[in-house]
Write a structure and sequence with these properties.
Helix content is 73%, strand content 1%. The protein is mostly helical. The protein folds into 2 domains: 117 residues, no CATH class; 307 residues, no CATH class.
Length: 451
């Protein structure tokens, strides 16, 4: 006969074993319960508290699923999602006391579906079977390094010439009066020059691959890199410089087996501070006065949820769902005529009046504009599958630059949406693969090529 104490100990062990065996299922069931409770709370502060616990909990759980692998594409995406979408309601409430409860469900449920899909894929036998079959030795093209260098120089020179012509043509707009409004005015009718400026990024990416494999002079690379980056900022393209940095980081960390977390945190902080400073400088030069560092930093987090809230107040009450139309807007803009890009179109639809550029919708907002609540949740599930695939390709260094460009597009889509990077993806991939094609050596391909 067991004593009461023995039965109690036995029951405790059974309960502990049950939680150990089913902890993932319990955690995945916990988040919908928190979201359900949140919807019955009337107090804004308590509602935001439950939102914050739910969202941060889901982000940490996704990190756990990915084994806290810093180089994971899913972890990178979650960081960008957190910065440009998820965290936004918190600093907004702290800094100015404004709450956006209308956005909570859309953000939480879409990200929950994302996490759930990742969990299901990672635990499926089909995924494990495919990963085991994927060869670690990838067959790549046998590339002529000299041809790569020459092609890269040509791309960078084309880019710099385009910037010089653009600067001369629009000098009065870029450096006269309100610089931000002048920058927007100077964009009109300069599509060929604007897209030609991106060629330099492809050239620098090719050179970086050579640098990482000790096939090109590091000092010369950084000199060209610095000149290209500063010239982009000079003519008002802060995002172009940030894109260059982001693609550089993605290519760099792909080549390195292990990168200390402290180093990643340091580089991330530097990029964030540079972004804030450039934003503050642009604000001052545009005649909008100076902004304190905390305010500038806070606005980076708040802007996404503010735009998302405006979108949800307008769609579909004032403007109908677009059912994919916005994904073609930037292509329509390329034809002759007065058509505007996606961000300026959205600015008009929201009836927002402010100087400068358009409205960045965030990925959640863009999907909501097109497909509403249900469509957004389905899209995030599909996105999870795409990012899992990209993560495997990135990890195994398959088609490196092409994969990195798509990853870059998925990351920045958290802020600007997918439509704003579609043309750039096509441009980068076409130009890069053309360079690889003309740089191939004659004869058989070999394994472990550097490009």
């Amino acid at each position: 006969m067991r004593t009461g104490k023995e039965n109690y100990t036995m029951n405790n062990k059974k309960m502990i074993n049950f939680f150990r065996e089913n902890n993932n299922i319990i955690i995945m069931l916990l988040f919908p319960c928190l979201i359900f409770i949140m919807n019955f709370i009337q107090n804004d502060v308590v509602k935001l508290l439950i939102y914050s616990i739910s969202y941060i909990g889901m982000v940490l759980y996704l990190f756990y699923i990915c084994k806290f692998r810093i180089k994971s594409v899913l972890v990178m995406f979650s960081v960008f999602h957190m910065v440009f979408i998820g965290i936004g309601p918190i600093p907004s409430a702290i800094r100015v006391g404004i709450y956006y409860p209308k956005t909570y469900n859309l953000i939480l449920i879409s990200y929950y579906v994302f996490c759930l899909t990742v969990y299901i894929i990672y635990n499926s036998s089909y995924y494990k079977e495919k990963c085991n079959k994927l060869s670690k030795e990838i067959k790549k093209e046998n590339i002529n390094h000299k041809k790569i260098i020459i092609s890269s120089y040509v791309l960078i020179i084309i880019s710099m010439i385009a910037e010089a012509v653009y600067l001369i043509k629009n000098f009065q707009f870029l450096f006269g009066g309100n610089m931000e409004q002048g920058r927007i005015t100077s964009l009109q009718g300069n599509g060929i020059l604007l897209y030609s400026m991106w060629f330099g990024l492809v050239g620098l990416s090719c050179l970086l691959k050579l640098v990482l494999n000790n096939k090109y002079n590091v000092k010369l690379f950084f000199l060209i890199y610095l000149i290209y980056g500063l010239s982009s900022v000079l003519i008002g393209f802060r995002s172009r410089f940030i894109t260059l940095i982001l693609i550089t980081v993605l290519l760099y960390i792909q080549e390195k087996k292990e990168i200390p977390f402290k180093k990643i945190a340091l580089y991330g902080s530097v990029i964030l501070i540079v972004t804030v400073l450039l934003g503050g400088i642009r604000s001052v030069l545009s005649g909008n006065g100076s902004l304190k560092m905390f305010t500038s930093l806070s606005i980076i987090f708040e802007n996404g949820v503010l735009n998302l809230n405006n979108i949800m107040n307008s769609f579909p009450q004032k403007v109908k769902y677009q059912y994919g139309y916005t994904f073609f807007l930037n292509f329509i803009m390329l034809k002759p005529g007065p058509d505007v890009d996606f961000t300026l179109w959205l600015k008009e639809m929201l009836n927002m009046k402010f100087a400068g550029g358009g409205v960045t919708p965030t990925l959640v907002g863009e999907l909501y504009i097109n497909f509403g609540h249900i469509g957004t949740y389905i899209a995030f599930s599909i996105l999870a599958g795409i990012l899992v695939l990209l993560d495997e390709l990135y990890k195994r260094k398959i088609s490196t630059f092409n994969v990195v460009v798509i990853i870059w597009a998925m990351l920045i889509a958290c802020r600007g949406g997918i439509a704003n990077s579609e043309i750039n993806i096509l441009l980068f991939v076409i130009v890069y693969n053309f360079v690889m094609f003309i740089s191939r050596k004659e004869g058989k391909n070999e394994k472990h090529s550097i490009i």
